[in-house]
Design a protein that fits this description.
The structure holds 2 protein chains of 2 kinds.
Chain A: E1 11-14, H1 20-29, E2 35-39, E3 56-60, E4 75-78, E5 94-97, E6 113-116, E7 129-135, E8 149-154, E9 170-173, E10 184-187, H2 191-204, E11 215-219
Parallel strand pairs in A: 1-2, 2-3, 3-4, 4-5, 5-6, 6-7, 7-8, 8-9
Antiparallel strand pairs in A: 9-11, 10-11
Chain B: H1 10-22, E1 27-28, E2 42-44, E3 65-67, E4 76-78, E5 82-84, H2 94-106, E6 111-112, H3 120-125, E7 129-133, H4 142-147, E8 150-154, E9 166-167, H5 174-180, E10 188-189, H6 199-213, E11 220-225, H7 229-239, E12 243-247, E13 256-257, H8 258-263, H9 268-281, E14 290-294, H10 300-308, E15 313-316, H11 318-324, H12 332-337, H13 362-365, H14 370-394, E16 408-410, H15 413-419
The chains are: A alpha/beta, B alpha/beta.
């Protein structure tokens, strides 16, 4: 649950009056517990990238590429859409996008949680290394490509090539999957998987979701060793 | 011998029969082994009537180089223009990585991480450590990024432009696997393209993000495998690189398909002049964006020739491993047991290296003493610098960077055309003034 419900304590950083460098420098130097609002983000790139403290940041509008890139511990909420690579290589913390996300959302993310209320484009969770990713809408092609660890929950549809060359990441999709990539197979849903989905939904703050149609996908582990077959 | 074919020679026949036996392509380490035009095909002219030499031992001849002052607040300052190329912990043992770092530090130069992340030992051992940012992002950690003295965005490498790395299961030990977030013992494939950017326009934004995360403190290198160097270097500069690293096809790899190593990419000698041409056209050569060249650098003569053709520094990989003891006659019996001989051992992917370098076997790795390895690396680096200085002084240069193409001639028509210097004894530069 975000702690951004007390606006009177929030420090506003006006991206129009300040450079991205100035905005990020303030956020990167902040101590735990501080709250910030970035006004006028105007699609700027690398906003709130490289944060390390347990702070709350609200981006009041659309952000460009690599918003909240490499996030550690911080909670970042975007009241708009984001471009390529939101929360890429996130280590911990939480990033939430009210709108849609561009390509490569949560690429290589090691930890933490990315929630996209809209849809995410191609390569969502590519090379995922341990983070949790919850997409309320759909994801584009080549999502979870080479995903190594972590969990991906998609409530809409998934594009072609889902989970191509996947390692040990766990994928859940409620809608249609246009096609599975190499070595990605459907796996049975057991009680512990249903519980895992429920926990992800709760963590993402998504309530009233009918999870009965959700199906599970993962690695067949047939490409783990070089073979001619 | 009569009847032997030049097309189907003994090596070709052996490879066809191996393929027929095993049904899978050959994988090996090291770079291209085929004969290609190289620095051996160039000669320095030296001083004479029209040039004034410097005394070969005492007179000052500078070797320092500053890398990455274009955007970074803290550029990398090296005492010698020879750096240690990126090689991973995983491909190499922990003692080997430590030895490289300690050896480089002894002579005031840098070393580089590799696919799989930065180890604490490596950071501790290296005064100046370049952190590679690779397509796989194995072990990629923003804390390590901020601990680095420079960041090297790896687009490709000379041994395999367009290919990703591999690390076979016997080397994916528990520690290596944990650093890479992979199951222990699998045959690991590394991604061949970055997951969150495509093309130079995206790369410019990626570099901005990396600078934002590191406070615009350290330089960013962009490494490309030699294939289309004129365009690749120009695009790297346009994207904002502080330093471009250009790796020719002789550059080594820990493990790649042999057919890839020998048939994709171009030689270092052929790649260097077009790269320099791109930097000059953009007005950033020698003073704006530095060029580091790697792939087949073995001697101080190679260092001097690369710099004379316009490089600011060179990187060594295979040469450094040989200095540590790779392919030494000391291990002849063990090489023989593996069906090879010193000089030909390239099964670095198998993890059975008797020299303790390209292995994760604790017993083999323990054969390499990091202190002794560091001494050997430092000695080798010193010799490279001393040899390059010897040549520079003979050409009348008080700094290695004063060497220039005019100091060189070529022994072959091919090398003259590639290096864009005259064939020895003539004024002929093949292709000069020919429209591109």
């Amino acid at each position: 649950m975000s702690t951004l419900d007390a606006p009177s304590t929030v420090v506003t950083l006006d991206r129009v009056a300040r450079t991205t460098r100035d905005v990020n420098a303030v956020l990167q130097a902040a101590a735990d517990g501080h709250r910030f609002r970035i006004a006028g983000p105007a699609g700027e790139h690398a906003l709130a990238a490289g944060l390390t403290a347990r702070i709350d940041v609200e981006v009041d509008g659309h952000a460009g590429y690599y918003c909240a890139g490499m996030n550690q511990r911080a909670s970042v909420r975007v009241r708009g859409n984001v471009g390529v690579g939101v929360a890429e290589n996130m280590m911990s913390g939480r990033v939430e996008v009210a709108g849609d996300a561009g390509q490569s959302a949560a690429a290589t993310a090691h930890g933490g949680l990315l929630v996209v209320r809209g849809s995410a484009a191609a390569r969502c969770a590519i090379s995922l290394k341990g983070a949790d990713v919850v997409i309320a809408g759909s994801v584009g092609h080549a999502s979870a490509f080479m995903a190594q660890k972590g969990r991906v929950l998609v409530l809409g549809d998934a594009g072609d090539g889902l989970g191509d060359s996947i390692y040990e990441a766990r994928l859940y999709v409620r809608g249609d999957v246009a096609g599975l990539g190499a070595d990605c197979v459907e796996k049975p849903m057991a009680d512990d998987h249903r519980a895992e989905v429920g926990a992800l939904l709760a963590e993402a703050g998504l309530t009233g979701v009918d999870a009965s149609a959700i199906r599970r996908y993962g690695s067949a582990r047939a490409l783990y060793h070089w073979s001619t077959s | 011998m009569s009847g032997m074919s030049a097309t189907f020679d003994a090596a070709t026949i052996a490879e066809i029969q191996r393929a027929a036996d095993e049904g899978i392509y050959a994988i090996r380490g090291a770079g291209a082994k085929r004969r290609v035009p190289h620095f051996d095909d160039l000669l320095f002219l030296g001083a004479s009537m029209s040039r004034y030499p410097l005394e070969g031992y005492r007179e000052a001849c500078g070797t320092d180089v500053v890398l990455g002052a274009r955007h970074a607040r803290e550029p990398v300052v090296l005492d010698i223009p020879v750096t240690i190329a990126g090689m991973s912990f995983g491909a190499l043992s922990a003692p080997a990585k430590e030895a490289l770092g300690r050896g480089a530090s002894l002579v005031g130069t840098s070393t580089t991480t590799g696919d799989g992340g930065m180890t604490a030992e490596e950071r501790e051992a290296s005064d100046k450590l370049v952190y590679q940012y690779l397509p796989s992002r194995y072990g990629m950690n923003p804390d390590d990024l901020r601990r680095a003295d420079a960041i090297e965005v790896v687009v490709g490498q000379g041994a395999k432009p367009g290919g990703g790395g591999m690390l076979l299961g016997q080397k994916l030990s528990e520690r290596v696997a944990a650093m890479r977030d992979l199951p222990v013992g699998i045959d690991q494939r590394s991604a061949c393209r970055h997951p969150d950017w495509t093309g130079p326009d995206d790369l410019a934004i990626k570099l901005q993000e990396l600078r934002e995360i590191t406070g615009w403190r350290v330089p960013i290198f962009v490494k490309v495998g030699a294939s289309r160097p004129y365009y690749d270097v120009a695009l790297a500069v346009k994207a904002g690189a502080d330093v471009v690293v250009l790796d020719g096809m002789q550059g080594g790899t820990a493990a790649t398909q042999a057919v890839f190593i020998e048939n994709v990419g171009i030689p270092t000698l052929a790649a260097l002049p077009p790269a320099v041409e791109a930097l000059k056209e953009l007005g950033v050569h020698r003073g704006g964006v530095q060029l580091i060249v790697s792939g087949g650098i073995r001697t101080g003569a190679d260092v001097a020739k690369a710099i004379a053709l316009g490089a600011d520094a060179v990187s060594i990989g295979v040469g450094a491993l040989i200095a540590l003891g790779d392919n030494s006659v000391r291990w002849s019996e063990e090489y023989a047991a593996m069906g090879t001989v010193p000089g030909a051992y390239d099964a670095w992917h198998e993890g059975r290296d008797p020299a303790g370098i390209s292995t994760q076997d604790p017993e083999l790795a323990a054969r390499l003493d990091p202190a002794e390895g560091a001494r050997r690396i430092a000695n080798y680096l010193r010799v490279l610098a001393l040899e390059a200085q010897t040549i520079a002084r003979a050409c009348g240069k008080s700094h290695l960077h004063n060497l220039e193409p005019e100091d060189l001639v070529a022994l072959t028509v091919e090398a003259a055309a590639m290096a864009r210097v005259p064939l020895a004894g003539t004024t002929w530069i093949p292709g000069k003034d020919t429209p591109a």
